[in-house]
Amino acid sequence: MSSDFTWGVSTSAFQIEGATHADDRGESIWDRFHAEGHMPDGGEPATDHYHRYQEDIALMGELGVGGYRFSIAWPRVMPDGKTINPAGLDFYDRLVDELLAAGIAPWPTLYHWDLPIAVQDRGGWPHRDTVGRFMDYTAAVVDRLGDRVGHWITQNEPWVSAMLGHRDGYFAPGIADWKLALRAGHHLLLSHGRATEVIRELGGESQVGIALDCRAGYPASDSAEDIDAASHFDGFRNRWFFDPVHGKGYPEDMVEAYAEAGRFEGDPLDFVQSDDMEVIATPTDFTGINYYTSLAVNTANKEREVAESEPGPNPAPGYTEMGWAITPEWLTKFLVRVNEDYGPSSIVITENGASYSDGPDETGKINDQRRIDYLDAHIAAVGDARGQGVPITGYFEWSLLDNLEWVAGYGQRFGIVHVDFETMTRTPKASYHWYRDRIDQGL
Ligand code: FCB
Questions:
Q1: So what's the pLDDT on residue 3?
Q2: Coil, strand or helix: which one is 108?
Q3: Which of these, 305, 415, 286, 279, lies nearest to 360 by C-alpha position?
Q4: What is the CATH number of the domain that holds 341?
Q5: Which residues form the domain of 129?
Q6: What digits encode the pLDDT tens for the residues 362-395?
Q7: What is the sign of the dihedral through the CA atoms of 46, 51, 57 and 62?
Q8: If you measure from the C-alpha of residue 208 to the centroid of ligand 1, how many angstroms do you get, rounded to a whole number?
Q9: Which of 168, 349, 351 is the pocket-test mutation for ligand 1 (most atoms within 8 Å of CB)?
Q10: Quick check: is 412 in a domain?
Q11: Residue 34: pLDDT band by 50, 70, 90 thresholds?
Q12: Closest approach atom of ligand 1 to CA 157
C-alpha cells in the first residue's frame, strides 16, 4: 500500500448511531420527518453504533483501513441549535481516541444532513442565518477535536440536501419549492466556505474538503435534443455545485435556464451577497467525490434523479438493488473531467458502494459476490483515472455497516459488514474479507 493513499470506509451519524435520545441529543429534521410518517423506518435503533463503536472500530482495525469517514451529529453537539452540549461532544471525543489507538485516521464530516430541528424551525438552510449557526457549531467541534483530527469534511452532498430536501420534498425537511431549494443550496455552499475558514483558523495544519455527490449524465441518443438535455442535466446535477466550489461561480447557462423557468424568487441569484462566491471558493486540500452511478439523459429526465431500474431485491443484471446502473467507466471519465475542468488540489473518493441484501447462508457465511464485483470494478476505475494523471489520494467504501438508507429504510443494505437489526450482531461479509486483501494489494 502506498502511504500517500488512504483506504477507508464511510458512514454517517443518523444512519448508524441510534440512541436518538441519549445524552440530551436534540431532535433533527430526520427524526421529525420520520415522526410525521414520510419514511418507513427511523433512526432508532439504527445499528446502535453509539453504544457499539468499540466493536465497530475493532472491525475496522481487522480490515486494515487507514481512515474512517463518519459524521458528527449537530443535534448531539447543539441540541437546541446553539448551546453546546458537552456530553454530545464526549461521544466523538471517545470515538476519535479509540480510532487513533487503532491506528485509523478520523475523517469527520460536519454535516451529513441531520439539521437540528430548532435550526429548521428558524428557517433552516433557505435562511442565511443558518450559515452563522453552522460556523458556531463548526468552531465548537474543532475546538474539542481539532488537536487530533487531520482531515475535515464540511458538507456532504449539498445537491441532495438542497434538491431532494427542498425541491422534491422527498428527503427531510420535506420542502418542495424550487426557489427555496436554490437558496438552500447557496447557503449550504456558503457554509462550506465559512466552515473551511473556521477550520483553517482553529484546526492547525489539518486538511479540509467537501464531499460532492455527482451523477455522470450522457445523452440517451445522438439526437440534438438528448445532447442538450445531457448538458442541462450536468449543469443541474453536477456543475451547479462543482463550479462555485472551484472558483467558477454559478454556471451561466444554468442561471439563464433557471431564470427563464421562473425558479428564482426575485432577480436571478439575488441570494448571493458581495463576497459569497470568493468564500465558497476558499481553497481546499481535496475535493471529495461520492460516486454511485450514471444516467442516460433525455428531455424527460434532465432534471430528475431517477432510478433506472425498479429498486428492490433481484435487480436486473447491471443494476444494484437501488435500481442504479453499474457504470464504473463513467467514474473514470468523471474523475478525468473534474481534474481537467477544475484542477483540484487532490481528489478523494469519499463514497462508493452498492446495495445488495445478501444475508447469511446455512453456514452463516454471507457471499455478496455482486458487491465484490462492483467494488472491484470501481476501484479499478479509480486506478485508471489515477493512471491518467488524476491526483486521487483516497478511496472510502460506503459503507462499513448495513444501516438506515434514509427513506429506503433498513432493507437497502450497503454494508461490507452485515447487521442483524434484531440482535445487532455484526457479521463480516465476503466483501469485507475481499476488501482487506484488496487494500493489501494497493491501487
Ligand atoms: C449517499 C449518501 C449516503 C448513503 C449513500 C448510499 O447519497 O451520502 O448517506 O445514503 O448515498
A1: 63
A2: strand
A3: 415
A4: 3.20.20.80
A5: 6-441
A6: 999 999 999 999 999 999 999 999 999 999 999 9
A7: negative
A8: 20
A9: 351
A10: yes
A11: very high
A12: 8
Q: Whole-angstrom Cα distance, residue 271 to residue 7?
A: 39
CA of 245 to the centre of ligand 1 (A): 20
Instruction: Report the pocket of ligand 1 as residue ranges, CB < 6 Å.
Output: 12, 15, 156-157, 160, 213, 290, 351, 398, 405-406, 414
For residue 136, is it within any domain? Answer: yes
Query: Which one-letter amino acid corresponds to residue 227?
Result: I
Nearest CA residue ID for atom 4, ligand 1: 405
What is the per-residue pLDDT for 203? 85
Cβ burial of 301 (10 Å; 0-12, 13-18, 19+) is middle
**Distance of CA 341 to CAs 86, 192, 335, 390, Å?**
43, 20, 10, 12
- How many structural domains comprise the chain? 1
Global pTM exceeds 0.70? yes
Least confident of 201-205, 288-292, 336-340: 201-205
Cell of 328: 464504473
CA-nearest residue, atom 2 of ligand 1: 157
Closest CA to 115 of 178, 36, 33: 33
Q: Which of 303, 305, 321, 351 is catalytic?
A: 351
Between the CA of 111 and the centroid of ligand 1 the distance, in Å, is 13
On the question of pLDDT at 1 being above 80, the answer is: no
Distance (angstroms) between ligand 1 centre and the Cα of 357 equals 16
C-alpha cell at 303: 432534471
Active site residue 157: yes
What's the CA-to-centroid distance between 291 and ligand 1, angstroms?
Answer: 10
Is residue 351 part of the annotated active site? The answer reads yes
Residue identifier of the C-alpha nearest atom 10 of ligand 1: 405
Q: Is residue 126 part of a domain?
A: yes
Q: Is residue 1 part of a domain?
A: no
**77-136: per-residue pLDDT in tens?**
999 999 999 999 999 999 999 999 999 999 999 999 999 999 999 999 999 999 999 999
